[in-house]
Structures are given as C-alpha cells and as structure tokens.
Amino acid sequence: MDVFPRPPHYRQDAVIDLTMTVNELLDQHSNSWNVNLVRQLFSDEDIDLVLNTKILPSFSGVRSPAHAGLLAITWATTAVKEHKLRNVQFEFSSLEAADALNNPLEYPPIYSECYKALGSVYSLSKSSMVLVHRTCNTAASAIADSVISGQRFHSYVASGGPRWLAVMLDKEEISS
After folding, report:
1. Which positions fall inside the RNase H type-1 domain (predicted)?
2. For the chain, is the Cβ count within 10 Å smaller at the N or the C terminus?
3. Are strands 128-131 and 89-92 parallel, antiparallel or unpaired?
4. pTM > 0.90
C-alpha cells in the first residue's frame, strides 16, 4: 500500500476519461468490478489493487442528511464485521442522524434505517456509538467531502486501508 494517496497508474495504450468515477468501473447489473474495463485501463501494478477492493452498497437514492448518516453507520459496521473487529467505538458527526436515532418515530421514511443502524452497532461485541463534533473527526470529514465533491456514489474498503489514512488518524488521535 502507498503511504500517501496517488493518482492511478494507467496502461500506456489506454485512452482515459479523467472525469470517470468509480461507479463507471462497476458492472451495474452485478454490482461488481467490470474486470475487462479495469484490465483495459490500469497498469498491471494497479489491477490487483482495484479488483481486490471490496465494493459496498451504493449511497445513491439517499433521502436526507439523516438518512445518509444512518447509512454510513450501517456501512461502517458492515465493514468492521467483515474484518472481524470487536470493541469498536463508532464516532459520527451527523446531528440529523443523532436526532433520528433518538426520535425514530419523527422520521417515518427512515424509521427502519434507525433500527438497522442501532442493531448493527450493538450486534458487535462491546461496541458503541458516540456523536462527536465534525472538527474532532477530520479524517472522516476529508473522506466524506471527497466522496461528495467527486460524486463517488459507491463506497469501498481496501483491506487494512491506505497508510495515508492511518497516518491521518494517528495524528487526529494524538491531538484529541
């Protein structure tokens, strides 16, 4: 893994659309990587990195900021479960999601998402959720801003995560 984020390495003979998003590298019917397209575009060095990156559910069709926050909590717990982690404190900064979790009956369109998020967190041994101010979560905010500004509607988690993120999280922990 790279220490810092870097641009992808493309095949020298590939014609690249620099506005392409991750969503365009997926087979929309199977919600998996379009292997042929990945092999056409990326260098041998990057093909395995891309194809071994797990694709998680799409965040398209989000109804509100509260709904987005609840989906993010459920998505995070899914990733943590797959990595067989326990005793995890999930920090989130969405005041809207916090309100929905505390008052689910006031959010009929996303009522079921409230219980799904709570159930997913508490199904993990010794895990909890904590609402924190956005400034206390700069790494998460940077990732979220990148996803929104780049319209990356599919999220994915690489095994172990990139080193640049670990460095950022270490710095955040030290300063808190």
Report:
1. 59-145
2. C
3. parallel
4. no
